[in-house]
Design goal:
This is Synaptic plasticity regulator PANTS. Belongs to the UPF0545 family. The chain is mainly α. 61% of the residues lie in helices and 0% in strands. The N and C termini lie far apart (60 Å).
Amino acid sequence: MSEAKEKQKNHENSWMIRPCMMYKAEYDDCTSIKVRFNQYFIFGETLDCSQWKTDYANCYEWEKNKSEKAYDELILSEKQRRRERLSAHYQNNVWERREKPPENWNAPLPEWMQKEFENSYLHIKNEEMKQGKETSQLNSRCTIL
């Protein structure tokens, strides 16, 4: 197998790696005084944020020098983070999991719902984008109260 194909095969999980600045932002957020206070309030102690810093360093090393060790450690960390995030889902024994989607998952919406959708902001914007229009009959500013 060629070296390029071998590298590509070895890097099949590269989609898991976030942009490096995201790891830095997560670390900065985790160590901020506001979040530290919240951690103490919720957990009774502050959390260990060092993994975010390690991930940032590994990401930087991977991006700059293509270090295989940094790549492997970063992927391992992302897999662990994903395992922890989904642990409650996998431990759930209340809901029955589906093997396939319901038969009518992509059936057309009821007529009354389609009629309401015709005048919605999203529908009008979607039609404008399809036609390549720049201006809108709706005011482009949105205010959420």
